[in-house]
C-alpha cells in the first residue's frame, strides 16, 4: 500500500515535472526569438506574448494529470 | 459601415474636400475597385489637377518648407489659436515670411555657432576649474613656460614626476589637482629653453599636452586661461541675448506662423486628397466608407452647403467588398477601456466580431477568480484610483486603470466568496470564512469549476465562429463548427458519465452520437478536422490554469502569514509578511492579467476571430486625431 502511494506520488511528480521542463524549454526558445523580434518590431508585442504563452498548456495538462493521479480519478 | 459616393461639379471639388476634411467622417478610398461599374470605367478616370491647383500646391509646399524652417528656430510654447486665416492673409504672411525668415535664420545660425564654440570650450572647463587655484602658487617669470595636462590615471603622476626629474635635472614645478570628472589636471612650469623637449617627450609617452584653439597660440598660459574664461562668459551672454531676440520675435509672430503652418498643412492635405478622386468630363466622384449613422448628417450638410449641387449616395455593399470594409471599434462606455486589449492584436475583419464586449465580461471574471483575495483587491482598487488621478488626460493609462479597477472589484467579490483577505489573515483577525469554497483544500471542485468556465468560454467562441461562417454564407464551415460543438458536448457528457457526474446509462447513446457525427465532421472539416477537435478539448483543459495559478497565489499568501507568525516578533513579522504579500500582489497583478489575456487570445479568439481588418482612418484635420 505504501509502495503504491509512493509510485503514485512519483508518477504525479513526473507528470508535472516533465511537462514543466518541456514548457520551460519551449518558452526559452520562443522567448529568445521573441526578444529578437521585439527589438526590430515592437508592435508585435501582443503576438509574442501569445506565442510565449502557448506552451504553457503542456504544464497545465501535466498539472491536471498529476491531480487526477493524486486524487485517484 | 456604409459604402458611399460623393459626386458634384468639378469646380466645387476643393470646397467639397475641405468640408469632408472639416467633418472628418469619410474615409476616402483611393482605389476604384468595387466602386466603379465596368460599364462606367471608360468614362471615369483618375482626377488630374489643373494648372492652378498644381501652382497652388507648389506654392503651399514651398511656404510650408519655409514655415517649418522658421518655426524650428523658435522656442516651443503652447499654441493658442486666435487667428482665422484666409488665402489673402496667407499671401501677406508669405510676403512677411521672406524678411522674417532671413532674420530668424541669421539668429539661428549665430546661436548655433555660439553653442558649438561653447561646447568646444567646455572641454577645457574641467581643466580650468581645477587648475585656476594653483596658478596663485606658481612662480610667474618671463623665462618660464607652462604646460597643461590632463591625466586619465592618477597613478601616472609618479611616473610623470620621474620623467620630469630626468629631463630637467629637477628644475621644474608640477602642480596637480583632481578634476570633477575623475581626471587629474596637471600644470608643469619649466624653463622656456627645455619646454619644447618636454612637450615632445610627453607626446611620445602618450601624455598629450592640452591644446588650445589656434587664436590663443601667441598668448602665455595664464593669458590663455583668462581669455578662455572671458570668452565663455561672452558666449553665454550672446546666447542669452539671441534667445531674448528669438523670444520677442515669437511673441510677435510665433502664434500667427504656427497657425499659418496648420492652415497650409490642411490645405495641402485637401490638395493631396485629390489623388484619390475620380472624374468625368464635368463631374468629380469621391468614393469611400463612413459610419452608417453619419450618412444622413453628412448628406444634409452637403445639400445645405452646396445647394443640391453635390450629392452623397449610399452604395450597395457586395460580397467582394467585405475584405475592403474598414473597421472601427465602437463600444459602450463600460467596455471601451477593454478595446486596449483588442487593439493589441490585428483588428478583426468587418465580417468577424468585435471581441471587446466578451473581453469586458470574461477578463475581470478570470482575473477575479485567479486573484480572489479581498485584501489584494482593495489595494488594487486604491492603486487604480491613484493611477486615474495621476494620469489624467492620458488615454491608455486611463483605460488601463479602469480595467484594473473593474478587475479588482471582481477580485474583492471572489475574495469574499473564497473567504480570503490577505490569505488567512481575514479568518485569523475577523473570523472571515469561505462563502462557497475554500480554495486551498477544495482542489478538485475548483478544477471542475475552472474547466466548466472553459467549456462555456470555448463553446461560446465556437458558436460565434458558427454564426460568423453562417453570415459569410460558407455553409460547410458553419456545419463543421456546429458538428464540432455537438461532438465536444458529447465528449464532455461522456467524461462526466465516466467520472460519475452524469448517469452511467448515458454513455451508450453518447458514444453512438459521436460515431454518427464523426463522418460528417470529416466530410465538412476535411482530414484535419479531428485534430481541430482535439485542439478544442486541449483549449478547454487549458482553463485549469485559472485554478492552478489561483492556488499558487493563495498558498503564497498563507506562507507569508505563516512565516510572519514564525518570526516571533511583531515588527519583524509585519515586515516579512508585508514583503511577501507585496511580492504576491505584484505577481497577483501580472499573472492573472497575462493568463486571462492568453485564454482570450489563444483559446477564445481562435474560434471565431478573423484577423486582417483594415483600420478606419477618416479624412480629417490633424487636430481631431488627438
Summarize the structure.
The complex is a heterodimer of chains A (73) and B (626). Chain A is an all-alpha fold and 73 residues long.
Explain what the structure shows:
- The complex is a heterodimer of chains A (73) and B (626).
- By secondary structure, chain A is mostly helical.
- In chain A, 86% of the residues lie in helices and 0% in strands.
- In chain A, helix 1 runs antiparallel to helix 2 (45-53) and helix 1 packs antiparallel against helix 3.
- The two termini of chain A are 17 Å apart.
- Helices cover 62% and strands 8% of the residues of chain B.
- Chain B is built from 18 helices and 11 strands.
- Classes of the chains: A mainly alpha (73), B alpha+beta (626).
- The interface between A and B is medium-sized, with 16 and 18 residues.
Keywords:
A: 73 residues, mainly alpha, 3 helices, 86% helix, B: alpha+beta, six-stranded antiparallel β-sheet, three-stranded antiparallel β-sheet, 18 helices, 11 strands
List the helices and strands and how they pair.
The complex is a heterodimer of chains A (73) and B (626).
Chain A: H1 2-40, H2 45-53, H3 56-70
Helix pairs in contact in A: 1-2, 1-3
Chain B: E1 2-9, H1 13-23, E2 27-28, E3 45-46, H2 51-73, H3 87-135, E4 144-151, H4 156-168, E5 173-178, E6 184-191, H5 192-204, H6 221-273, E7 278-279, E8 283-290, H7 292-306, E9 311-315, E10 326-327, H8 339-342, H9 356-371, H10 374-390, H11 395-418, H12 425-430, H13 443-471, H14 475-498, H15 507-525, H16 529-542, H17 544-567, H18 570-604, E11 614-615
Parallel strand pairs in B: 10-11
Antiparallel strand pairs in B: 1-8, 1-9, 2-8, 3-7, 4-6, 5-6, 7-8
Amino acid at each position: 500500500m505504501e509502495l503504491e502511494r509512493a509510485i503514485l506520488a512519483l508518477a504525479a511528480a513526473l507528470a508535472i515535472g516533465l511537462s514543466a521542463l518541456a514548457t520551460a524549454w519551449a518558452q526559452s526558445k520562443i522567448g529568445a526569438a521573441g526578444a529578437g523580434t521585439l527589438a526590430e518590431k515592437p508592435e508585435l508585442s501582443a503576438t509574442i506574448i501569445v506565442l510565449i504563452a502557448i506552451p504553457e498548456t503542456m504544464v497545465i495538462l501535466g498539472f491536471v494529470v498529476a491531480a487526477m493521479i493524486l486524487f485517484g480519478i | 459601415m456604409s459604402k458611399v459616393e460623393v459626386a458634384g461639379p468639378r469646380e466645387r471639388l476643393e470646397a467639397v474636400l475641405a468640408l469632408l476634411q472639416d467633418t472628418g467622417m469619410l474615409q476616402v478610398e483611393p482605389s476604384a475597385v468595387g466602386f466603379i461599374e465596368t460599364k462606367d470605367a471608360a468614362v471615369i478616370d483618375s482626377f488630374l489637377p489643373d494648372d492652378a491647383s498644381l501652382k497652388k500646391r507648389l506654392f503651399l509646399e514651398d511656404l510650408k518648407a519655409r514655415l517649418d524652417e522658421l518655426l524650428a528656430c523658435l522656442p516651443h510654447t503652447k499654441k493658442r489659436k486666435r487667428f482665422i486665416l484666409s488665402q489673402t492673409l496667407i499671401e501677406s504672411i508669405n510676403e512677411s515670411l521672406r524678411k522674417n525668415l532671413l532674420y530668424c535664420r541669421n539668429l539661428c545660425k549665430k546661436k548655433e555657432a555660439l553653442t558649438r564654440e561653447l561646447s568646444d570650450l567646455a572641454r577645457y572647463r574641467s581643466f580650468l576649474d581645477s587648475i585656476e587655484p594653483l596658478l596663485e602658487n606658481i612662480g610667474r617669470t618671463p623665462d618660464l613656460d607652462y604646460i597643461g595636462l590632463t591625466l586619465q590615471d592618477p597613478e601616472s603622476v609618479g611616473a610623470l614626476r620621474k620623467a620630469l626629474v630626468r629631463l630637467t635635472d629637477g628644475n621644474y614645478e608640477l602642480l596637480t589637482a583632481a578634476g570633477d570628472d575623475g581626471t587629474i589636471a596637471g600644470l608643469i612650469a619649466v624653463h622656456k629653453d627645455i619646454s619644447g623637449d618636454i612637450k615632445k617627450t610627453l607626446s611620445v609617452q602618450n601624455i598629450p599636452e592640452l591644446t588650445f584653439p589656434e587664436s590663443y597660440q601667441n598668448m602665455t598660459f595664464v593669458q590663455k586661461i583668462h581669455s578662455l574664461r572671458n570668452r565663455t562668459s561672452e558666449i553665454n551672454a550672446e546666447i542669452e541675448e539671441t534667445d531674448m531676440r528669438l523670444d520677442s520675435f515669437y511673441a510677435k509672430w510665433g502664434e500667427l506662423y504656427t497657425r499659418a503652418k496648420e492652415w497650409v498643412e490642411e490645405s495641402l492635405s485637401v490638395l493631396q486628397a485629390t489623388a484619390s478622386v475620380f472624374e468625368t468630363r464635368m463631374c468629380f466622384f469621391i468614393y469611400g466608407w463612413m459610419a452608417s449613422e453619419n450618412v444622413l448628417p453628412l448628406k444634409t450638410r452637403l445639400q445645405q452647403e452646396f445647394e443640391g449641387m453635390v450629392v452623397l449616395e449610399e452604395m450597395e455593399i457586395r460580397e467582394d467588398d467585405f475584405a475592403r470594409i474598414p473597421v472601427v471599434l465602437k463600444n459602450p462606455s463600460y467596455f471601451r477601456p477593454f478595446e486596449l486589449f483588442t487593439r493589441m492584436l490585428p483588428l478583426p475583419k468587418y465580417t468577424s466580431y468585435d471581441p471587446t464586449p466578451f473581453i469586458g465580461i470574461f477578463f475581470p471574471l478570470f482575473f477575479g477568480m485567479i486573484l480572489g483575495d479581498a485584501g489584494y483587491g482593495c489595494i488594487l482598487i486604491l492603486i487604480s484610483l491613484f493611477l486615474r488621478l495621476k494620469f489624467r488626460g492620458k488615454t491608455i493609462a486611463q483605460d488601463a486603470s479602469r480595467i484594473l479597477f473593474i478587475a479588482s472589484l471582481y477580485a474583492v467579490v471572489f475574495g469574499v466568496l473564497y473567504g480570503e483577505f490577505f490569505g488567512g489573515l481575514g479568518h485569523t483577525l475577523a473570523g472571515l470564512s469561505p462563502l462557497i469554497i475554500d480554495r486551498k483544500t477544495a482542489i478538485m471542485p475548483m478544477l471542475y469549476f475552472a474547466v466548466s468556465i472553459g467549456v462555456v468560454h470555448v463553446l461560446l467562441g465556437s458558436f460565434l465562429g458558427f454564426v460568423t461562417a453562417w453570415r459569410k454564407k460558407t455553409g460547410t464551415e458553419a456545419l463543421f463548427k456546429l458538428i464540432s460543438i455537438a461532438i465536444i458536448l458529447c465528449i464532455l457528457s461522456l467524461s462526466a458519465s465516466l467520472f460519475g457526474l452524469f448517469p452511467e446509462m448515458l454513455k451508450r447513446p453518447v458514444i453512438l452520437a459521436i460515431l454518427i457525427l464523426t463522418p460528417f465532421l470529416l466530410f465538412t472539416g476535411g482530414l484535419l478536422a479531428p485534430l481541430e477537435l482535439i485542439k478544442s478539448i486541449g483549449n478547454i483543459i487549458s482553463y485549469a490554469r485559472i485554478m492552478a495559478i489561483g492556488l499558487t497565489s493563495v498558498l503564497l499568501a498563507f506562507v507569508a502569514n505563516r512565516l510572519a507568525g514564525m518570526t516571533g516578533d511583531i515588527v519583524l513579522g509585519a515586515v516579512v509578511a508585508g514583503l511577501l504579500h507585496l511580492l504576491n500582489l505584484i505577481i497577483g497583478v501580472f499573472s492573472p492579467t497575462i493568463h486571462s489575456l492568453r485564454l482570450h487570445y489563444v483559446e477564445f479568439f481562435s474560434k471565431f476571430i478573423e484577423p486582417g481588418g483594415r483600420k478606419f482612418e477618416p479624412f480629417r484635420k490633424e487636430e481631431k486625431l488627438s
